[in-house]
Amino acid sequence: MRDKACVIKYENGIASVIPLLSDTCINCNSPTCAKRGTPFQASNPQNFNLKSGDVVKIEAPASIQIAQGFFSLLLPILAAVAGYFLAEPVANLCGVEVTEAMRAAGVLILLIIATGVIFILSKTWLKLSKPQVTSVIHSNDLNLSAGCPL
Fold first, then answer.
1. Phi and psi torsions of 108, nearest 5°
2. CA 144 to CA 6: how far, in whole Å?
3. Running DSSP on this structure, what letter comes out for residue 96?
4. Which of 25, 35, 38, 97 has the fewest C-beta atoms under 10 angstroms from its C-beta?
């Protein structure tokens, strides 16, 4: 995630920001889309002197981006491969000959399990970190809350 946002309030190292509308958001129907102006909080690890009305660049921490990439891309691929190869030992345990349908079922079952794991992690562990303010694009030197180009 790399976006521009407008600071609406800044206290104790946490900035309340509103995402700024971009061209890619025009046809978005998401309830958290930038054109809806849903405020959220971002941390300020570099201790910028933020004021209401500043336009800032925000990013998700690199560790969270790596974890999201792993869980959303690699985990399902690894689960599908494991499901394909685990079908044979499971069929042997049941005393039947492995078929392509069993391999396909193994792939689907482990993909469903991986999807469940990803869903649970995305609602818990991967949401623990706030986005971070990485730079100030435009400083509102007059400290006017109407300085945001919304």
1. -65, -40
2. 12
3. S
4. 97
